[in-house]
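User: My advisor, Dr. K., asked me to get a structural model of this assembly before our group meeting. I'm new to this, so sorry if the format is off. These are the inputs:
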Amino acid sequence: MAELVLSARGMSRRFGGLYANRDVSLDMHKGMLHAVLGPNGAGKSTLINLLSGDLPPSAGQILYRGQDISGWSPDKRSRAGIGRSYQRTNIFPAFTVFENCRLAAQSRAPRALRVFSKAVSFADLCDAADRAIEQAGLAARRDAVAATLSHGEQRQLEIAMVLATSPSVLLLDEPLAGMGPEESQSMVALLKKLTPDHAILLVEHDMDAVFAVADVITVMVTGQVLESGPPEQIRDSVAVQEAYLGEGEPGDE
Amino acid sequence: MPLPARKKRNYLPLVLLVLALFPMFGSGYYNELIAKIMIMTIFAMSLDLLVGFTGLVSFGHAAFFGVAAYSVVLLSPKYDPANLWLVLPAAVFTGAAVAFVVGLFVLRTKGIYFIMVTLAFAQMIYFVFHDTPLGGGSDGAFLNVKPELRIGETVLLDLNEPMQFYYIVLAFLVVAYVFLRVLLRSPLGHALAGIRSNEHRMLSLGFPVFLYKLAGFVTAGGIAGLAGFFSACQYGFVTPEILSWHQSGNVLLMVILGGMGTLNGAAIGAFAFVVLQELFSALTKHWQLLMGAVIVTVVMVLPGGLSSLPQRLKGLLIGGGNRNG
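Assistant: The format is fine. Below is the predicted structure of the whole assembly, which you can bring to the meeting.
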């Protein structure tokens, strides 16, 4: 079995009386892409927010390499190697693509006291930024101001920024949302390329993409895990089909 | 496509030259006025680091300016000149230290709460000096003899001399300007710009945002302290008014008037504000009415402040100008 990196144990998040996540447990291993499916409101984004630290859990544990990190702040988790992307593009609009990624890389080597050195003079950070830009397929747009990018390109930048922090865990919240078919394809190829070295959690609506890249799929409904297993198991699951797939996936039989 | 790099004329050497030569032509009154503008420029630039570059709208910046000014008076012997190299760093340190303590509290709040809490802290400090005998109460206190720098028996620099004072202020204005420019292109400066642009993303990228903001806040407090030092030395007395919210408001107006997020804007804003204040108060005692009208007009017509005027004019002449400069 691959190395266990990040796991949730009986994790819950309540908003008042409403459970956004209830008793969720899942494991992420290095070299495996773990996809999370579910209808709107199933608690997928909440799950990512809990794992990344944007939201504190109401109950349960989050273990990172065996250590309980439930109380850690988002920046501490990020520095430990848990990177995340956002469903709604969350970039620095006025900066260039390069500066977005360079700043992301800077978080790994802050050098905050080097006030007499130029930020852009550190080659390691510039290289890390350029590598991430290249990986995400944005090399041609390196010097463009982020706000001027197309929606799809901004989604790519979103990923590039996470990659620039060289994380070991990737929490990706609908990276394909709003992408054209071509961009989607290259993103799927990128995910495949990244999987061997990372533990990836992918929240995504695009079924074809999910079944193409996932090693494990967890289906969530109303904040709870309905079923979890390899893609074939999910495809054949009666419960999943009834709850979710049955509506719009006639080709599954 | 990368945007074509726009060639920018650099007027700074010219400005510097004018400032350096000015005392040879100006009278005492005008020299004093320009020195005051330079002091206010240092003050406004320090606030611009927070408002324009980090996105922290502080409404209590006079606190750091004021405590530093008071520290000069309190640290100076009553009838002898203080040592410049002692009281100047002490004033900067005082401004920074007070900013550190205040920052520990106020930087936990955001937006409108941040504005109100910085104001509240500044008012607390104002009343400490206003209502206790620490700094002479509401009457303030005198700095009988201004600091000087001497080696052995020779006096190298004497702030009692208006000319020397002028050039020392000019030198430190340059130091503060260059320091801030260098700081802004350093990793810390880029991180502060990131915080201004998208604080939430900075956090999720792994930056300890609070510490970065505190670093910016302390730096701004220290530079405000430098301005406070010179202000105390220029007039030879301090009153609680230099700590009051009027002073915080004035410096904020200078930054807005000149244009936020450009150090040059802070300088232009300080210049415009002090000159207009001088002109209007000679006309009428209701000068604040006129000042208010000017500020409202500038904010409405030139959202980027006075420093965006050349681009705005160019935009109007060529057409298709960018409203935000």
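One thing worth pointing out at the meeting: The first helix of chain B runs from residue 12 to 25.

User: Perfect, thanks a lot.
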